[in-house]
Design goal:
This protein has a two-stranded antiparallel ribbon. The protein is mainly alpha-helical and about 130 residues long. The protein has helices at about 10-30, 35-55, 65-80, 85-90, 95-100, 105-125; strands spanning about 5, 130. The chain is built from 6 helices and 2 strands, in the order βααααααβ. It has one domain.
């Protein structure tokens, strides 16, 4: 008999909330983190959060597929920061808009996103449960 595994949506919600809290902490109180984490941690954790959110929508998807989608979303959002339309800039001027969409294209963010998705891929097996 084959066993099918899927991710626990409850655990994914907990991981998402914890990732958001830690990411916000790197921005609010950067002095308590190592310099590299204070500088790039928020961006890396943003991509980790995207991975968890994609996993919430597709809990049975492979880690490879989730990583690919999360990176495409993260890179797409970063590339969108090159677009300077008034409505988009107004959205980015809000707190939530800035957190979700960022504020300016930075090449180093792409590396941070890869680290963040890599972190999620490493943690992901803990979110799986077996079904008959």
């Amino acid at each position: 008999m084959r066993h099918r595994t899927t991710r626990s949506r409850v655990l994914l919600l907990v991981l998402t909330a914890a990732t958001i809290a830690l990411g916000l902490a790197t921005r609010r109180i950067p002095a308590v983190f190592p310099v590299v984490v204070a500088r790039y941690g928020g961006d890396a954790l943003w991509a980790t959060m995207v991975y968890w959110l994609v996993a919430l929508v597709r809990p049975a998807a492979s880690r490879r597929m989730l990583a690919l989608i999360a990176l495409l979303v993260a890179f797409g959002v970063e590339a969108s920061q090159l677009v300077q339309t008034p409505w988009l800039e107004a959205l980015r001027a809000t707190r939530l808009g800035a957190l979700a969409l960022g504020q300016g294209f930075v090449w180093s963010d792409l590396g941070a996103y890869m680290v963040g998705v890599g972190l999620a891929v490493l943690i992901d097996p803990m979110s799986r449960r077996r079904h008959r």
